[in-house]
Each structure stands twice: as C-alpha cells, then as structure tokens.
Amino acid sequence: MAGLVRCWGLSLLVLCLLICRISSLTKEELFPYGQAGGEEIDQFITNGGTSDPFPLTVPIVLHGKKYSSVIVSGKGIITFTSVDLGTPENRPFPLSFPAIAPFFADIETENDGVVTFRESTKQELLDKANAHVHQAFPNQASFLARSVLIATWDDVVGHGNPNYYKNTFQVVVANSGDDSFAIFLYPNGALVWAKTVSRTEGKPEVFALAGVVGEDGKVQTLEGSGTDYLRNLPTGRTPEGLPEGVHAFHIGNPVVEAETQSPEEAAHGEDENRYDGEEEVTREPIDDRHPLAVISAQRANTEQGQGQGQGQNQQENGTEERQPAPETADREQRPAEVAPSAASAELQGNPTCQDPSQCHADARCSQKEGGSCCECGEGFYGNGKLCVDKESAQRMNGQVSGQLNGVDFRDALMHNYIVVNEGRVYVAFSPIPNAVGDALQTVLPVASIVGWMFATPENGLKNGLQLTGGVFNHTATVRFTESGQSVHVSQRFSGLDEHKMLHSVLYLSGTVPTVTPGQTIEFADHSIEYRRSAPGNIQSLSRSTVKVGEQSIPYSLEESISYQECPHNQDPNLAKPARLHISRVVSLYQQQERASRFGMDGKLTELGTGETDVCQAVDCGTHAGCVSQDGQAVCVCSAGYETQDPNTKPLVCTDVNECVVRNECSQHAECLNSEGSFICRCLSGYLGDGRQCKTAEETAAEDSCETLNNCDINADCHSDLQAGRQVCRCREGFTGDGSRCSPSSSQGGDCAAQPEICDSNAHCQRDSQGRAGCVCHAGYSGDGRSCAPSGNGGGQQLPIAPPGSCYHNPAQCDRNAACIPSGERGEFACQCLEGFEGDGLSCRAKPSTRGGFIAFTQGMSVVKLAIDRSSLDRGGQLAILPGQTAVGITVDCVDAYLYWSDIAGNTINRCRYDGSQVEAVLRNIQSAEGLAIDSVSRNIFWTDSANDHIAVAKLTDVKAGHKVIINKNLSNPRAIAVHPSRGTIYWTDWNRSDPKIETAAMDGSDRRTLVNRELGLPNALAVDFQTDDLCWADAGNQKVECVALDGSNRRLIHFGASYPFSMTVHENRLYWTDWGANNIMSVSKSGGDARPHELPVGSSGKVYGITSVPVQCPRLTNACASGNGGCKFICLPLPTGRQQCVCPDGIGADQCTQ
What segment(s) does the record annotate as region Disordered (predicted)? Predict the structure, then answer.
C-alpha cells in the first residue's frame, strides 16, 4: 500500500510538472542544502579545498562502471579518484579521469561562498528526482532512485572576478544501484560569471566547463561549455515540463536496450551509434601544425579514435561526444557558438532519439521499427537534424579553389541563392581568374549538385537536403570523350556554419576544352539518374553535351555522394532510383567582375511508367554500386576505388592510390594515401590546406592589388616585373604611390580657393581623399596646370567661363556638389555629387542616403531596423560579406555611410545607407569592437581589444593610416563614443577587477575616470547630444544608467537588461543589442516603456553593434570644421576650443610637417 501511495504521489508530481510549466528555477526550488543538523547533515568544504572520499550507500553508475564513493571539489566538479584538478586552463575536456562537472572553474571559496554535499534517501527528494528523470527521458519510466547525491555551490566567486560576482548551482545524481542520472540545476539570476582570470600572466581568461566524463573518455557536455554562453543556462531551453535551468543527463547505462536487439538491428549497430551520438557526418579533423585537405568520413573516424584530430562532434541536443586526446597535445579549443536547446541527452549508441531535443527545433522525434529518427514538421523539410522552411529562400556560402588547364586559383568565395519552393538555384564563384573563367563554365557538376540538394521532389521522393541535412561529401569526374580531357571535382558540404548558413568547400582539378572569351556556353535540358547503392551512398553515371559557341561537346559524368543516415528509417522512397531533371540552365562568366555564375531548375521524378529497374537484381560487389546507362546496368566502383576489369560482376574494386594516380597536393606537401581517400599535408615551413602550400614570404607577396583591390580610384593595377607582382600606379595627371593619388597640380596650390591656377582646358576636381586639384578636360592631357590636346583627338579649346560662374567662385556650390563643365560650349555649373540630388546650389541625399532608422550588425550582415511603426518598411539586410564577423558599427551622417568592423577579416568596412557601395576602407585593424565618428572633424575612432589601444583615422584620407592616441592602462576596452563640439571621447573598460568608464580629449590628453563604482561589465555606451548625457548598459548588473558628461547626476534608467552589448540613442530612446534575449531592446530615457523590437525577416545569429542613423546631422561644430583646421593630416578638436594636428603613425618625420 505504501508503495502504491508513493507511486500515486509521484504521478501527481509528474503531472504537475507537465501542466504547470515553470518559467524558471529559483534558488528556493533547489533541492534542500546547507543542513547543519537534523536527520541528514550536509558535509561542508572550506578554503577552496576538496573533500575526502565520501562513501555512498547506493553506488553511482557512470558509463557502465559503478563507484561507491565520491570526492567533491570546491571547483565545481565531482570526481571518483584523487587527482590534481588544476583548472579548466590546464585540464580541458575531455578529462583523463571520470568526473561530473556542473560548473568546473577556478572557484575561490576562502572568503566567499559555501560548498555542501550529502547523500539522501528521503522519499520526497527521491520523488522529485524521479519526476525530473521521467520528464527528461520518457522511455525511462521504470527508473526509480534509491538515493540521491546532492552537491551545492552557493554564492561562489571565480578567481580574479569582483567579490560581488557570485554564482549558485547544484548537481543531483539519482541512483538506483544499476543506473544513474545527473541533474544540473541553475537558478535564474544565479549565474553571473562564466570565466575567470588566468593565473598565468598574459594568458586569456578561462571559461568554465560543464558536462560528464566517463572512464572510457566519452564526454557529454552542456551547450556552451567553454564559452560565455554558460551564463544563459538558467534560461536555456529544456524538455517541456521541466523548469528552465534544469538540465539532465543519462550517465549510467544508456545502451541497456542493446540486450534485446534482433540480429538485424545488431547488424546496424555501428551505423546507429554514429547517427545518434554524433552529427550526421563527422567534420574533418584539423591539425594546427599540418592543415589537411578533404578526407573521408572513414578516415576522420579512424584518426579521431587515435586522438590525432581536433574535430569536435557537437550534437544539436546540447551534448558532445569526443574521443580522448593526449593530455600533452598542443591544441587550442575554440568552441562554436551554439543556440539554446535542451541539454538532456543519451550517450552515443542509444538507438532512439528520446525526444525532439535531439532533433532540429522544427522537427519531431518519430518512432520507427527498432528505434526512432528525427523528422521535420509541417511546413519544413530536411532530414530532421536540419529543417528549412519550404517557402523561404536559402543561402549557401563557402570556398572554391583548384587547378584548371594548368592555372592555379584559390581563395575564391561561393555565394549561392536558392528559391526553395521553385527548385531553382543560383550559384556564383568569385574572384575566378580570367584565364580559366570561361572554361570553368563547362563543368556543370560544381552547380548541379546544389540543384540535386534543392530539387522539387515528386511522389514522396527525397531531394539531397532531405537525405543528408546538408552534410555530405560529393565527388564527380567529368570526361570529355572526344578530346580525352577530364576534370575531377571534390566538394564537402558541412551543414550550417556559425552564422546559420549552409556551407561548402569545393576543389577541382584537371583539363577542359578551351573556351574563347565571349563564347556562349549552353546546356540543353537533361536528366541524371541517382541510385542508392548502399545506406548513405548514392551514385550516378550519365552522358550529356555542352555547346560552346557553335560546337557541341559530348561528356560523361560520374558522381558519388556519401553521407550518414538514420539506420531505422525504412522509408521505401529512400531506396528508389530518382531522376534529376535539370532545365533552364544558365552558364555565364563575367570578366569584369571575375565572377562565374550558374542557374538552373531542378525536379526529382521516379523512373517512367513501364521502366524496369535494371539494377534491381545486380550484385556489383564490395565498394561498388550499380547505375543505369542507356537502359543498361553498369557497375561502377565507389569514389576512391577502381577496377582493372569493368566487365566482371561482381566488380573487384581496389583502393586508388590518389597520391600516384592523381596527386592533387601541392609540390610542397606530402600526400598520404588511405583506404578510399587521401590526405594532403603541407611540409614543415609551409602554410596552406595541403593542396596549396606557400611560405610566409610568398603569402605576403600575394597580397597584391589584383587580390586586394586596394588602389586609389585614380589609379590602376599593373604588373611589376621587377617586384614580381601586381602594383598600384596613379593615372596620368595624378601623383602618389598608387594607393593614394592626388592631382599633379596639388603641390602648387588649392584650386578650390584659386581656380585660376588651372589651365583653361581643365577644371578643379576633388580626389578620393577630398583634396582639390586641376584635371584636364576630356580630350586633353597634362597635369591640369597645363593641358594640350591628346593625340589626334584635337578638341577645341573650351572658353573661359563668364564672370560670376562657379568656375570663379566654387563656394557657391553646395558642399555636396562640384563645379564641372557642362553643355557643348563648355559652360561651368554646380552639379550634385554621387549620392545626392538637386540643382548643385542645394543638394539633398538620394533615397540611398536617407536616414531615420536603426542599423545593427549580426554575423556576416549589416541589418536595417525600421522603427516607424506606421511605415511599411520593416527593414532587412543591408550588406552581407561571407566570412566576416561584423561587430562595431557607427554612422557618418555627412556623406551618408555606415561604417562597421569585421574582426574576422581585420578590416573596417563601409556602405551607403541602402547597402550599396560596400568596400573595406581600413585594413589590418585587429579587433575593433567599438567605433565612433566625429562627423564634424571627419575622423573615425575605434577601440582595439587585441592591442588594448584607442586609435583615430581621417575619414577622407584613411589610406594615410591611423594614429594611436591611448595605449596605456587599458585592459578590455570595448564601447566608444565621441562629442565633436566638446572635443572629447568616452569609452568603457570592462576589466573584471576594475571596470570603469573613462574620458579624455580627442588627442588622448586630459584622461580621467568618469565612473568606476558599482559597475560589472559596462559593454555599451552612447552620448545624447540633445541633453549632454552619457548613457551605458552593464551586462554584469543588468542595468541601463546615465550621467551628465562631467560625471554628475548618475541615475538608473532601467533594470533587467539581460546581456547588453552595444547601445545607441534615437529620438529620446535608448536602444541596445541584447545577447541574452538575442534581440534589440529599447527604453525611454525617462525609464518607461521598455520593449523588445521584432527583428527583420531573414536576420539570424547573435546581434552585436547598433547605431542610430539620423535623418540629418546634429548641429555641432568645432575648430576642425573648416579646412581641416589647417592640418595636413588629422585634425583633433580639444575641449579648450582649439585643435591639435597629428600625423598617422606610419608617416615619417620628414613628411609630418604639421
């Protein structure tokens, strides 16, 4: 009867958890802890130490092994043997010993915090633990705990953090004697810090780790382990019914079901383990010392088992499985950014997906015979591990390199766009050298594979994305039968990257027929038959023609696709042959853009009515598959294998030694053959991916203007035979080094003020740096001071403009206009510059330069947020650069440009307000986290968190370089703001031991601390010019505050900002990007009406910088407003009302004559 009552009580508790969804866990809802008296007494750990071995009445089962005692450490970890723990800095996952780590970190409890633990057999606590287990793992309803181990770390402080940064967390291990579950509990608001200061001088901060490690070396980790995302665990997504902040692991015997497997199921055991325990296809390991080229999944698994790789197989359900690596390995851990999801998961090898938390957010866990698989929900399609909206367009990016017709090319980027509901794909590669661009257009498989991925399927067939989830290897060989030429294509698709975009890496090598520039390339509509030769392997063999000009060139195409599939999916459509119909093919190379472009429609159909499957009863043997060619069954070897006798059945396929037959490696690399694949590895002293290896000197030499496109607008890129590379040279009439060119007459005076210095057949024109100089009219050549007819072009001398025209008085033109010749008689008139419209006397911004919105950075994108609720404009992506990580952003309201920093490419870029005219304006800027522009003085300032300095550059002369104005006593500079009229800059430094907000004159002088009390992580900063307030948002104490510019009148505006990163002021509201909410939030400056803002459709990823784009510039002025303050290079206004002229750091003393 007592047992019945306990079961009834447990059922009620489970029911309550199911229907009474708790929004978040509070400290009061933790398992009771800190009991110093009574029936059960807690053990206490003091002085940051470790307990003695603590005996258990019921053993803990960890990865199949039972442990009858535990050792609890103050560092947030439980072990089972006495070991020197160290810290996560010298003990990264995977640990070399078994452990349960809810928050392994360098915790100090000498002065702050309490650590307690005990074992309990109280029925109410057992019921509570059982309820959590049953809700997280519905298939474990028979589990009943006999004891629970409860360990709690209350208000603990990390090394180097302020003593008011306190964390509270708990682990409960539920044990039945034969099985165990670990439950990690993180109360809302109780995880303030996720990293500690390194104990080694000069080393970066160390992130905490969270997970479970078995004696077998297998690891289950929480999402975000080793990243700052751990701070979000209290609000992370968990299985429905569990409170937020509760994360469960099955740590005991997660593969007990194997005892009841049928022989057929057991035969698929290896495939099961790979599918349920890892991503669909293991990402290739990368050795920092020897970068690798593409290798097969088989090779990757082998090397991981030997601990030679660094690939980290990360499950979408929040856990990771990794093979143990040598403790002495020199490796750098860089965890990928992950989105919140439930952390409960089974170990690798469980044949079921348990619940949807292991699937994509838009998928469900579907029961199959012998197990379960992920399936996309209504309105989405994919393989369940990845699902995309059927109606939304998709993008794919990646890298392209190779050797075609003897010409090497590399570092080209892939930009693909897919109209999903139409099955149409657009594929583009750039830059592709002109020498091979046209010829590349004959190699259709580089694009048709994307067509297969997104083809419109009929009658239940699956396209490539539905089969693979976007994670697979593709090889293709194109043979031009008449010329004997062939080209080999290797492509690796790796699913979603950190920016939530599909990613691929393509390499091709070989020879193709010559194509004369300008010749048209046409592909007729045709079809390719794809057959599943084995689980996770698809092959095809087809023939077609490409029309080059008037010549039709026949070719054959052999393809192989390998991926991993759910072994329980018995859908008969998976084994059906499918015919890909390719139509409306466009193949075009654009020489001026150096861009290769393809477009096509794709549709998948079954074999025609009455057609027999010629491969149905054909046994092709090991490492081989059957394909249909002209209605006949043909056996072909799998990729990486070959046969000596193609007519035998079954085929005898042996490994191809690619290192001998088709060595695609660099001459400075070694080629290592393996079963079915090979590896390229650069030799010592060379850098590269193995296919291309260069010395450091050669790599630097390749940074030519042809690649960088860094010439002045009045210069061209020319070959320099002496230098052995492309160099910039100024055009006739201009002088300079090519990267900066000025009119030749500029040394003789400023024609803007003295137009008479120009020849009568010349006009005064501003160069790319905004300086005025004389330039000869079309049909004339010279230095602008003296112009003569060019060649035989003749041309009549243009008349001198009449008195009173802008020729004699350029000042009558608008500041956004220039005085230039117009009309047949050569009259001079004011004309608005590009981006502006009007009569020249008055110019206004074109729509592309209109403000009145918020701009923010997100991953690879700069995004517009429309804030006018009555407007139909909802914003959207303005500019996207594949591969970039856009962080800081600011606005130049004078010339209508947005400027942002790319910390991946080490550049500062800009674009127009509408996203046009994207260009990099500053290079080799290592980590500019904060940007600010003085629109009056035409200067841009930034904080560099890598070099710990603050620098400035002239907007109109950025190629002259920048000036570091502050480089001492900075620890973690982030946000920066300027006040042009006051001549002051403001910045935040979130040094955890001494966070502060400082100010200084724009030249770095008169530096002082403005705020240094009650700060946590002051990330965001903004100046309100209307009220002369300085406002900031603090990610440590979750506050938004303001002070007067002199530091007085500090006031709280808003409390509850989850994790602010950047801030701006717009129309009496404060807007900030919030990592915790992954959204943009705002509040009135009076403190009311706090609200989130709906992000534009298509935006995804973490939000970083934010800036207000005003309709017009604020009315401000300073000493540098006119004529650059008389300075040659950079003019910096000072609080005194005067100015300071400074030179960029790269300018020599002989040139720096200020």
Answer: 258-360
Q: What is the Cα–Cα distance from 440 to 400, expressed in whole angstroms? A: 12
DSSP string, 891-950: EETTTTEEEEEETTTTEEEEEETTS-S-EEEEE----EEEEEEETTTTEEEEEETTTTEE
pLDDT in tens, 108-156: 877 778 899 999 999 999 999 999 999 888 888 899 999 999 999 998 9
Task: Give per-residue burial for 339-353: e unless 16+ CB within 10 Å, then b.
Answer: bbbbbbbbbbbbbbb
What is the spatial distance between Cα 220 and Cα 237, in angstroms, rounded to a whole number? 17
Torsion over CA: 370, 374, 376, 382 (sign): negative
What's at 475, amino acid-wise? T
Beta bridge partners of 473: 492, 562
* Confidence (pLDDT) at 771: 61
Angstrom CA distances, 1062 to 311, 857, 932, 1033, 1076, stand at: 33, 10, 12, 8, 13
Residues sharing a CB contact under 8 Å with residue 346, sequence separation 6 or more, in sequence order = 137, 250, 254, 276, 352, 354
CATH of domain 847-1133: 2.120.10.30
CA distance 30 to 1008: 45
Helices marked H in 370-479 — which ranges? 434-440, 445-454, 464-468
Closest to 211 in 3D by CA, of 319, 59, 338, 350:
319
For the chain, state the CA radius of gyration: 33
- Closest C-alpha to 60, from 147, 135, 162, 1: 147
Maximal C-alpha separation, the chain: 114
Whole-angstrom distance, CA of residue 125 vs CA of residue 651: 64
Task: Indicate the pTM of the whole model.
Answer: 0.39
Closest CA to 113 of 150, 70, 76, 72: 76
Single-letter amino acid code for the residue at 647 = N
> What H or E segment, with its residue span, contains residue 719?
strand 715-720
Give me the amino acid identity at 528.
I
Residue with token string 């093979």: 323
Residue with tokens 């070694």: 670
Domain with CATH 2.40.155.10 in the chain: 386-612
How many CA atoms lie within 13 Å of 875's alpha carbon, on the beta-carbon side? 23
**DSSP-derived secondary structure letter, 689:** S
E strand or H helix at 706: helix 705-708
Residue written as token pair 């993008």: 395
Q: What is the pLDDT of residues 454-505, one digit of tens each?
A: 999 988 899 999 999 999 999 899 999 888 899 999 898 988 875 567 889 8
Look at residues 1071, 1082, 1138 and name the one whose alpha carbon lies nearest to residue 1108: 1071
Q: Copy the structure tokens of residue 236.
A: 């992370």
Residue 865 in this model has a pLDDT that exceeds 80: yes
Question: How is residue 694 written in tokens?
Answer: 């260069």
Torsion of CA 738, 739, 743, 745, to 10 degrees: -80
Selecting from 2.10.220.10, 3.40.190.10, 2.40.155.10, 3.40.50.300, what CATH number does the domain 386-612 have?
Answer: 2.40.155.10
| E strand intervals along 823-914 | 827-832, 836-838, 843-845, 853-858, 861-865, 876-880, 886-892, 897-902, 907-912
DSSP string, 461-477: ---HHHHHTTEEEEEEE
Beta-sheet pairing, 551-562 with 624-629: unpaired
Q: At what angle do helices 123-136 and 2-19 cross, to 10 degrees?
A: 50
Nearest Cα residue to 774 out of 787, 788, 784: 784
Q: Looking up tokens 């396929």, which residue turns up?
A: 653
Using DSSP bridges, classify how beta strands 502-510 and 394-404 pair: parallel, antiparallel or unpaired.
Answer: parallel
As a whole number of angstroms, the distance between CA 196 and CA 198 comes to 6
Segment 760-771, tens digit of pLDDT: 667 676 654 456
- Cα angle 819, 822, 824 (rounded to 5 degrees) comes to 155
Residue linked to tokens 């007819």: 789
